[in-house]
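Reviewer 2 asked us to include a model.

Predict the structure of this chain.
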Amino acid sequence: MRTLTGGYLLVHGAWCYGWVWDDVAKRLAKADHRVTVVDQLPSSGTDPASLGDLTDDANHVRSLLETQDEPVVLVGHSYGGMVITELGDHRAVRHSVYVAGFWPQRGQSVEGLRGDAPMPDWSVPRDDGTFEITSDLELVRDSMCADLDRDRAGQLHSRFVLQSAAAFGVPSTAPDPRHPTTYMITAQDSDNCMPVGAQEAMATNADNVLRLPAAHFVQLSRPDELAEAL
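Predicted model (structure tokens):
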């Protein structure tokens, strides 16, 4: 956990670590906000045998919320939306923000939200109960970060880790939120990552909806706009 200089807790998505929030966190801290970044969810990592699931991820973020001195804005990107949904009734959260995030109803899992759609071709299943990101950089770039130049996309690609398949199968408890919610739609997301239509459907649950002209990893391509929106 990194505590920078009040009131945001940033949760990364699948296949990632918290470094994806670095640029946004720096901008929020420069504006005199206290920012906590989740460095690593239990379901993401390099050791397949040690990876957890959605319940472990939610418990990890809950433990960080318990350390906060004041209510925070809880932000979840992509799969991170599943995690922050589990904490919708937590007393330490004053606002939840979904950044192109999964927003399940009670009893829904990532697999359930995807319905009959197959896993995208950039997500490769392994025999050890994990998924890895394809080695095809151009496919990754086209699918989730087309607004990054090739070098920056390559940096992202090189830092992806394994993701527990179990995390995608655990149904959400989705408690009723006790605070306002915002959904940020990344309007340039391709159909291979988080389709805009799916985001729009989930955004109907939100109190506020914003659209950002970016692909899925908006925190890397447009950190200024995202920090300002937050």
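The mean pLDDT is 94. The two ends are 20 Å apart (CA to CA). We have added this to the supplementary material.
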